[in-house]
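Forwarding the complex inputs:
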Amino acid sequence: MSDTAAGLLQLVVLLVLLAAAWRPLGDWMAHVYTTEHHWRVERVIYRVGRVDPDSDQRAGTYALAVLAFSLVGVLLVYAIQRLQGFLPLDATAGGDAKGAVDPAVAFNTAISFVTNTNWQSYVPESTMSHVSNAAALAVQNFVSAAVGMAVAVALVRGFVRSRSGRIGNAWVDITRGLVRVLVPMATVLAVALVACGVVMSLRTGLTLTAADGSTHPAAIGPVASQEAIKELGTNGGGILNANSAHPFENPNGLSNLLEILAMLIIPVALTRTFGRMVGSIRQGVSLLAVMTVLWGGMLAVIWAAEAHAPGATGSGLEGKEARFGIPSSALFADTSTGTSTGAVNSLHDSYTAFGGGGTLLNMLFGELSPGGVGTGLYSILVIAIIAVFLAGLMVGRTPELLGKSLGRREVTCAAVVVLVMPTLVLLGTGAAVVLPGTAGALTNSGPHGLSEVLYAFASAANNNGSAFGGLTATSPFFQIALGAAMLFGRFLPILAVLALAGLLSAQPRRAESAGTLRTGTPLFAGLVTATVVLVSAITFLPALALSPIAEGLAASAQIGALP
Amino acid sequence: MTTTIDPTTDTIADAAAEAPRTPVLRGLLRQLGPALRLMLVATVLLGVVHPAVVWGISRVPGLHGPAEGSTTAAGASTLIGIDPVPADPAADPWFHLRPSASAPETATAGLGPADPSTSGGSNLATTAEGLARAVAERRTVVAGREGVAPAAVPDDAVTASASGLDPDISPAYAALQVPRVARVTGLPVAQVRALVADATDGRVLGVLGEPTVNTTELNAALVAARPGLR
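Prediction (whole assembly, two chains):
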């Protein structure tokens, strides 16, 4: 069988599994976030946390709870990294102590993991101990995912509730997301990954013997438990530097498919949860259609570009693993950048201009194809609001979505969400490019060098975390600028989304009238898709023209890299 | 007054009434207690108990070996590849791996043993001059070693993997090395081909991933067939 045919069949297997999970998981999550019944273990957690699980919060309180939780997370992750030298299991493969993590790296990493980004400005094998990985970083992999889901659900409640102004209880939403969704799924996946061959060891190193008899110290660690939530929570931060390209994190075609499935399953099923909660499954289906078109379209671009990579540089196999080849690498890259995960099973920096550009564009769309857990759903709902508003302007109909009118304040909130990311990306990239130290931080020059910087800020501001790894982002400028991009890229949209949820919840829910633009239709899905593409094209075309587009045109004209 | 207010209830309006200048800050402070307590609970349950449970499950027979790195009795890992170095380059008995970005700098363009204490690739762009040069160099070295035309060398042989530790090569690259390995080891070509076939894995379930030859298994099989090799 040709690799293209096998790749297409693999795609079918993936889509069938997703389709099978969509309904039960989506309905389960709708139940989790709407039932009034608390599990016993949850009651214990609420008692320990001293929170009243039956209080219904306004947007302001909900937002403050999310901010306080994240602030505590940043401080705790920073502290554990700085105290790493006093904690056990901090040896490298060679037996040296890793000691405390450097303050700039610890600062950047704390923000990175709390914001669900998982940008890594360090080499894990020589920097991060098993304890820091498990007790600091993996914990944030869980809770940051639960926070994303909570914010999405709060926004959906804004549409559902009438004249309320209240949007749920942040502590309950976070706890339930963990106890009833993320932890059970991550445990099952972790065991499945161990069965595939993913390592789960408490040793800090093992001595490997090569065929010639020479011995080599190798890094190993408790990978499987973290690998599962890394993909399931669309986090992406690896225990090993090569991430999901490392055989210990992703040993074969089956583990690869499971990891891809894990990245997609929750963001995809949340569209069903949304439809269920608003009482119209087709509303969810139309959002899923938008996500699918964008994800599928970018997959086609990345796959085709890599399959036609020039032979003089190895036909696209530089930076790819033999067991994955081009189809399984392209599928992983598209999924990882489309879900805000940022895990890699191949090096995006070594992709062709248009293949790598595809992964970049996936992030610049705003992480909604299908986006991160929760973040994908609220991002696409915000775009739907913008689409309704634009369509309302064009045809003179009342801007209304799901029975809620979209007035000045609602649209302002949506506009804030849409504008934060481009502002951070373009300002950050612009500042980096004019700084004299940046050229020295790049592996590649010319348009591809600009791509490395643009990719870094797109990844940070979208909380993706994948990298064009050729950029050495360890200078104080990059640590601070990318840290700020991750922080603002996460919390400014969350604050605007929660404000929006509060405004919508306070409104009465109106019945559809003849003047209402009908949503949940193929036409509306097309409108939302066009809005995504237009907004990102208008914002980023100039920057993209100078980076992947220039590189691709130069390569196809066989001019080679510009000096 | 503040002690009687439940931290989770809506206190924005109340807080504003009490301290009109900093309602947001007071609201945030009020949430910090629950936030800290719940984060500590999460750290214990998700950061200690959860990995311990997964580790415990991974101790059952059958999962224990993979969980500890899939190492063989000879101390090699079937998941990680480290390119063997021949004692005499003119009589090279080994099946060689793909180039690695963590190979020693003395190796030609990454054609040498990887360093498994770290991992990663070159990150060179397809338009980078350095990549075209490295690919050309590797092609020349591999073609010379196998005694074939440069055009006959498969692409995976001349490209560094993403992890630098890729144990797998394409069936085409394995086939290219069979004549030399048979000649140097003195094993019949048919037997070497059979060893390659034993070390070849098809796609998982027929469609997942790519067909590969595991060089750790293959070179171990060579040592088993010719114990004097090492």
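Confidence is low (pLDDT under 50) at residues 559-563 of chain A.
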